[in-house]
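Entry 14: structure prediction run for Zinc ribbon domain-containing protein YjdM. Input pasted below.
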Amino acid sequence: MPDELPPCPECSSAYTYAMGALLVCPECAHEWSPSGGSEDGGGRVIRDAVGNVLADGDDVTIVKDLKVKGAGGGSIKVGTKVRGIRLIDGVGDHDIDAKVDGFGPMQLKSSVVKKV
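Run finished. Output tokens:
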């Protein structure tokens, strides 16, 4: 094949293939744009409060106190660690799905978290 594709940036598999404008790894299911580094191929890059690029599975900390509506109220304090986030297209500006210890599953805005 004269036009050899690069290996997967996630698992280094040599079996990548093109699917439309994206490159895909059949071993780990990672998709990326061949022209733009290692970000997801969706064209949408989600950044934290200080500009770091976020990805699924990242650990983050809360950078400001957040009031929680619902049963019992309360608030999530600055510095609370959230492990294993998922990036989503949520309601409004909420683009992170996470489970916060003591509060359970919820959606957060990327503007209130910092990558660890």
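Notes: The CA atoms of residues 48 and 110 lie 5 Å apart. Will compare against the previous run tomorrow.
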